[in-house]
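Predict the 3D structure for this chain.
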Amino acid sequence: MKVSDFDYELPPERIADTPAEPRDSARLLVHNLARGTTEHTHVRELPNFLAAGDLLVVNDTRVRAARLVGARASGGAVEMLLVEREDSGVWRALVKPAARLKPGEHVALEGGALVARMLVRGSDGDGHGEWRVEILSGAAGAGGVRASDIELERHGRMPLPPYIRRPRGDDPRRELDRASYQTLFARELGAVAAPTAGLHFTPELVARLAARGVERASVTLHVGEGTFRSVEVDDTDEHPMHSERYDLPASTADAITAARARGSRVVAVGTTSARTLESTASGAGRVTAGSGSTRLFIVPPYRFRVVDVLLTNFHLPRSTLLMLVSAFAGRERTLELYREAIARGYRFYSYGDALLLVGAPRQSPGSSS
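Done. Predicted structure below.
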């Protein structure tokens, strides 16, 4: 398909730069795919749209404080995003300005609390300024003790998407973002972006879902830098989908099998959970436990093998996330729902409101159609 098929106009004032408080007070647009009906409510009412036995699958990745700002010895500003730590302990990082830095150069970060030793400039194929760097403890000087995860988490900043503006210096929202850009389910450190559908959950909402009889299981998909990048080709077939690491525990595979056996639905909380489930599924919809990396690019037409209900945020135009949602609900219907949300004043993107796409009830294996 053409990437332009997934475009829409969003007024800038509809972009949320802070989350709803409490989190489950965010608005929720509910669309029933089988009946073609739409309701407007709030996330706290989610239990009303699910049934006892439904299985909620959440992504338990934890976002690293992976954004670091600093300056060269000459005084020039530097910003980097730590994308992934390689087996050697060296970080793969996206750096601005990439071209001016030199191998062997040391860059003071976060007021000297950390030091980056620039090793070699890489090539990620699309000009985003990739480097291999060592991150050293500022307390040890440039001599070279690598910074611990504790130091990185203490001094780093949350890697907010570029459409959420924050100043380089001190800002009270910086500390608030440490909590608000992390889901209630966050356990496994490794993402550079939050699985944003999970941001809407509160302990109270989780308790009400459990009281409703809705079950819960987890997967891990460490959201990568590709979530920040626009699709830069005209044809979706030409897009090189980024790779992301995942883990699907045996307990989650068993929970999905049990849900299928009793005719219950699998509810994916976010595109990341959906992508993990679909990446590990057979043609018959059976998921396989295990770990690996996925480059699965879900774009219409696509037949979902595992996911029956999708809870998701409202995504950027021309993004792979919007394409996945369009594959689930249909492109024209998805864009129509987006237009309705814009007209009704919904808030968009990571800190914005939510969309629930409800599939038809599943038939248990022994039921007649």
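Confidence is low (pLDDT under 50) at residues 365-369.
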